[in-house]
Amino acid sequence: RSFNQNVKNWHFYGGFEGYFEIGDRTFDWDTGYRYDRTDENDLTYGLFNTANLDAAYGPSFLDADGVVRCGTAANVIAGCVPINPLGGNGSITQEGLDYTAFTAHDSSTVTSKSYYANISGDIVDLPAGALAFATGYEHRTESGQYDPDAFIAAGLSTGNGSKPTSGSYKLDEYYLELAVPVLADLPGAKLLDFSLATRYSDFSNFGNTLNSKFGFRWKPIEDLMVRG
């Protein structure tokens, strides 16, 4: 048995980025699109068709011309080549192998597509620095399919069995992040700031979820930082 696999991958990414000003504040933005696809084609040699094996191993008879035929005189199996698995060396002909063996052709495809947009900047100046934010949106689509050989899908292979399958889902995500400076360059607080972030994810096939985070950094002196 031998196996041949041919895999092709495609990847594309393109985007734009820039900035704009409102009053005395500058905001950065970026947007883009990504496309990924993997195509796989597999060939497996050395497999056998169990239905043809049953016919080739089954009853046989000599016809009027002295040729061995599959089946019975009253019910000849057209195209079948008889095989005697207990015969001597060379008793299984190439025609018999061609009749019972097959080359499996399996294929699969996985595709991922997404587009996104982000914006970030400073909202307002606080005594310890600027209150900064970042927010954005992403849409992603994932899909895939697998198509085994028809004989394999029908359960007629001497190898592992499998069935065709395919599926897909979509995802929409929104996020918001804040960086909040509280204290700076003070006795007992060389630095104190907070970070807050939340992400809402909506999956097309099993619902939504909200995941949030809160963090802080505190430097009571220059050479010591506490994080949480």
Summarize the structure.
With 228 residues, the protein is mainly beta. It contains three helices and eleven strands. The chain has helices at 50-57, 94-100, 150-153, and strands at 2-22, 25-48, 60-62, 68-72, 75-76, 101-126, 129-147, 165-186, 189-203, 207-221, 224-227.
Q: What report would you give on this structure?
A:
The strands form two sheets. Strands 1-2-6-7-8-9-10-11 form an eight-stranded antiparallel beta sheet. A three-stranded antiparallel beta sheet has the order 3-4-5, with helices on one face. It is mainly β and 228 residues long. It is built from three helices and eleven strands, in the order ββαβββαββαββββ. Helix content is 8%, strand content 68%.
Order of H and E elements: EEHEEEHEEHEEEE
Tell me the number of helical segments per DSSP (H or I, 4 or more residues long). 3
Strand percentage, roughly?
Answer: over 45%
- Biggest sheet strand line-up: 1-2-6-7-8-9-10-11
Q: Largest sheet, if any?
A: 8 strands, antiparallel
**Helicity, in percent?**
under 10%
Give the integer mean of the pLDDT values.
95
Radius of gyration: 34 Å
Q: Which descriptor suits the 3D outline? A: rod-shaped
Low-confidence runs? none
- Termini separation (Å)? 57 Å
- Judged by helices, strands and strand pairing, the structural class is mainly beta
Number of strands: 11
